[in-house]
Amino acid sequence: MMSISGERTAARPTPPGPALRRQKAAAANLSVASSVAVGYVTLLSLDEQLRVTQQTLTSREDAWHLAKRQFETGYTSRLELMQADSELRSTRAQIPPLQHQIAQQENALSVLLGDNPGAVKRGEFAQLTPLRLPSQLPSTLLNRRPDIAQADRQLVAADATLASSQAQLLPSINLTATGSLQDRTLPDLLDNPLRLWSLGGSILAPLLNRQALNAQVDVSMAQRNQALYSYEKTVRSAFKEVNDSLDAIQSLWRTVNRASGTRDRCPGNLTYCTKPLP
């Protein structure tokens, strides 16, 4: 395509619609997979909380029976018995809410997997093997995120639309290698207004509709700037999410290490407390 001034106009680019749809589908798939993984781990965590609470309930029951015998023999006062009874009732009251949360999580996970609400087959929380992340990760890994790829495709599509709107501002005609159109020379064509108008307005239309075309360019430019802002915001949000997750992982590992140290000292403390007096 050539303009009437002899300059080559930009060809109208095709917006990357299929690629954008693929990125949207990939983002949806990743969102579903992430929700399933989080839901499954949450379910196992609730199972573990219920198991620990039931073990605690057994210990509270033993403590209550011991406190009751000590009170009946006059070794302790009623206050110790009432305290043991309060702890027993408090622990027992924690079990129904946990069972309800487990049922809710099972139903939500079943629906997310496309099944009817119901029980979910699963393993145990102790079977999960946490992965140790390397100390450094390349930032280029973020390019694999579907949300960033989708924002990138939207920016490319906006650039294509802007280029198309700008190209429509220039009138154009088809030229042969000799500069003729339908066996007429270009100077003869431009000297004859009737022949010029017979081209269907392809030359005059951009000139007559200049205001509307300029408005369309402004709209396309605004859409392109919006797509650019959305892309930058998506990238920054991705970096924030990754940094937050890495910091949370490090914090959780520190918490686990401290809790493990406390757990390892518990048997020694129990042995010391139950050792008979000399």
From TrEMBL:
<dbReference type="GO" id="GO:0009279">
    <property type="term" value="C:cell outer membrane"/>
</dbReference>
<dbReference type="Pfam" id="PF02321">
    <property type="entry name" value="OEP"/>
</dbReference>
<keyword id="KW-0449">Lipoprotein</keyword>
<dbReference type="InterPro" id="IPR010131">
    <property type="entry name" value="MdtP/NodT-like"/>
</dbReference>
<comment type="similarity">
    <text>Belongs to the outer membrane factor (OMF) (TC 1.B.17) family.</text>
</comment>
<feature type="region of interest" description="Disordered">
    <location>
        <begin position="1"/>
        <end position="20"/>
    </location>
</feature>
<protein>
    <submittedName>
        <fullName>NodT family RND efflux system outer membrane lipoprotein</fullName>
    </submittedName>
</protein>
<dbReference type="GO" id="GO:0015562">
    <property type="term" value="F:efflux transmembrane transporter activity"/>
</dbReference>
<dbReference type="InterPro" id="IPR003423">
    <property type="entry name" value="OMP_efflux"/>
</dbReference>
